[in-house]
User: Fold these one by one.
Assistant:
Number 1:
Amino acid sequence: MKLVPLPAFSDNYIWMLQDGRDAIVVDPGDAAPVFDALARGNLQLAAILVTHHHADHTGGVAALRDATGAKVFGPARETVPEPLTRLAQGEHAEVLGLRFEVIEVPGHTAGHIAYFLPASAANTAAGAPAPLVFCGDTLFSGGCGRLFEGTPAQMLASLDALAALPGETRVCCAHEYTLANLRFANAVEPGNAALTQYTAQCEALRARGEPTLPSQLATERQINPFLRSREAAVLQAVRAHARLSPHSGEDEVFAALRQWKNDFR
């Protein structure tokens, strides 16, 4: 079972899992790259996993479903092209012998979900490159999604849920935002040696035209300011930048960190 990022639009990735015969895709905002990959590999599309309702994640769903008969899974509380199987926290999707656990991660949108593929005996037997998580626009390498519909408290809780996954989990984000995120991360925490090293690694990948993704959760815990908003260095930087009280709570600090990123140039 191979994990393949299919580039779409200017910076999206549509993630594909394929075993040489059948395939699963995640967040196909554009059907064309998926049809191309299916044709090149002589693959049959078995399922489509959707994390949230934004058009750059759902725009190709109907065309792919209608052409292939693929089963569609998506969030329980968002508007996604019907018909689909709606999923909420604690439920799962089973496709090609793989069992994806659903984690609700509101913040970017109100009903955003992530799909976690653990390194279980069944998933390993099915040839899965587990563990991995398809996190849509909630967690990016070095960053997190904008808060379009949720609150800072919701996003912080969502990131905590993702950060609690095993450190070896591969993080399959939906956008190639890594270098821009790392520029901000270095402004927040310039003394972070792991961040310096990771930035150089990602710059080399992009210079070769290669994706920086998937990243690894253990690395994100070391370098991503949005997973480190309770760390002393990040706390100090955010409080100084936003002129917060030393007694400001973690939700207020996270909100200020996200606003700093929104305004960062």
Note: The radius of gyration is 18 Å.
Number 2:
Amino acid sequence: MEQSHISFEQVVSRGCGLDVHQENVVATIRGNGLEEQTRTFSTFTSSLRDLVAWLEESGITHVAMESTGVYWKPVFNILEPHFELILVNARHIKYVPGHKTDRNDSAWIAKLLLSGLLKGSFIPPQYTRELRELYRYKRKVIGQRSSEYNRLQNILETANIKLSTVVSDVFGVSGWSMITAIIEGEQDPMILANLAKGRLKIKKQELILALEGHLNEHHRFMLSLSKTVILQLNDLLGQVDNRIDQYLKKWEEEVKLLQTIPEYKNKQLPPS
């Protein structure tokens, strides 16, 4: 069945359907006073600006596209200031009449757009999208740091350093001081145990037993690598947290109001 044989009531005056790929974007425009046209643009920024210029010259007000992987994002960002954009889940546009081509796909999206038959996905404002990206990146970095913690702990176990059996937080102040001393070449369990702080001092005899291992130069080298990575990740997390704080200043008053609610008092607000 040809697309031209399928008609719907028109609710959008002039619109464009985009079929987005990694290297190109196929755009079809339709609407009142327009002859249906399809053009292909590359995804380079200059070409996407040409797309914007063509759509504006054609009086396009609404643009619809599928949420294909991550390829829609740069296109969306460039078109967002100029048009009413609708991002559609690909599963909601299943039926493309006729032989399936990029041209037919974009034309079908344009037809559904003009008929008001597309349900757009919720796309938060750019400010919120950027903040979400920061939170997602932070979670990934925390995951990387946890993996490195585990790697360092496994190296200690391989060297028969049983620090985790005595110290609840191997990477706390005391544990980290002992690990650093081990990396720097200290082997005497008594000297290492004397680095304990606070209440951990009462476990000195247990620490001496736990810190008597079978370390060699390879173990120290691997521990040094893990320590370097952990410090780098800590620094990276600090930078991300500072950036997040800058974004949250915009909602400083809202955050304060939320924290007055009993449920939220003394709790860290989850990422949006």
Note: Strands lie at 14-20, 24-31, 37-42, 62-66, 84-88.
